[in-house]
Amino acid sequence: MENLHHIVVVGGGAGGLELVTRLGNKLGKKKKARITLVDSGLTHVWKPLLHEVASGSLDASANEINYRAHASKHHYEFQLGRMADLDQIGRNVVIAPFLDDEGNEVVPERRIHYDTLVIAVGSNANDFGTPGAQEHCIFLDSLKQARRFHNRLLNAFLSKNHESQSGESHELPITIIGAGATGVELAAELRLASRELPVYGMNHLRPTDVSITVIEAADRILPALPPRISDAARRELEHQNVEVLTGQPVSSISEASIVMKDGTELPSEMTIWAAGIKAPAFLSVLEGLETNRSNQIKVEQTLQSVSDHQIFAFGDCAECPQPGSDQPVPPRAQAAHQQADVLFKSLCNRLEGKDPVPFVYNDHGSLINFSRYTTVGNLMGNLSGRSMYIEGRVARLFYTSLYRMHQVALHGLIRTGVIWLMDRISRAMQPKLKLH
């Protein structure tokens, strides 16, 4: 075992987990290489689902993957911990001490030797240094944050329901800063929650008592997508009684309000930051790795670091060039999925002394889901390259298939079919919203 080529993957997000699963099934199972996954959490939830966990429309416990159990089944090792430093000369990843909830050290600092290192630590929200954002905003970068928001949302509804019953003022203003995919989809999920929760006993609070506002600094929502999708998304949000403010940069945030750049002050008892992303800050201080202003590791088209070809990076934490374009590969789930596929081939080639495979991004389109109301988006034609606009049930089917494809990559087709059947049964038997 000690003589095997050791591939260490840091980050068990969508791309990282798909990669170690395939490497374990092919190389780990046949003892051709040793595969290790490092992550600071014990479980994986597909990040595009976090806004559904936050609103309560999805039970995270039914969609979590335990790394240890998955590692045992798919022939790789799992190490719990957070990457703290990198020793490129000795080829060691430094893992910070693991502490319990009381701050007691459970496992001391460790060093994991690698022959090939893959960094896939994803991204965090970028508050651009906005005053008050860190102190007063809710972020949805992790499952822990999504669960914390869900509990806070339930408590807010409970409190406002009691105030309404007592004849007090009981309006609940909720604001989402950032109208990218996460912000827009979260707004729809929160509107659903405001309509469903009264069914479960909070009948003194009406949906109209909950005001939901989405603020976008650009001149339209979903600025990275085609205008037709932006227009359709805005119409749907307004149809669901969600206020949309565009061309409105946020100047500062306090506990109960938001101040716009033009001086306008908006009340907000719950403020969610969903604008912009950046890679984790620790990447920018790793000696010997070149990063950009967003802390992303600069990589070549082969996904190898421009500084060290023994180190690969992909997903949101990497700045990867696109041939024929001055823009890097966009930080999207489909890009990470495609990069994991190419990197799997490159790492298999590496063991055989062959060259790595260059990555070419293929945009398959974008889909925006408005909870149980509707879905809109576009699909890119593989041959023509043209975009086809879709909405309604057809779009919803394609949107759902994205998550099922992720599950197939992790579990295989048959087990994913069983999971799908269990999901259907669970949805039929459980409340429409998670109530605890």
How would you summarize this macromolecular structure in one to three sentences?
With 436 residues, the chain is of the alpha/beta class. The chain contains ten helices and 26 strands.
Structural account:
The structure is a single chain. α1 (14-28) packs parallel to α8 and α9 (392-411) packs across α10. It contains ten helices and 26 strands. The model has no long low-confidence stretch (mean pLDDT 90). By secondary structure, the chain is an alpha/beta fold. The protein has three domains: 5-123 and 279-351, FAD/NAD(P)-binding domain, CATH 3.50.50; 133-276, FAD/NAD(P)-binding domain (3-Layer(bba) Sandwich); 365-429, no CATH class. The strands form nine sheets. The protein has a five-stranded parallel β-sheet. A four-stranded parallel β-sheet has the order 15-14-13-19. It is 32% helix and 24% strand.
Which features characterize this protein?
FAD/NAD(P)-binding domain; four-stranded parallel beta sheet; 436 residues; 10 helices; five-stranded parallel beta sheet; 3 domains; alpha/beta; 32% helix
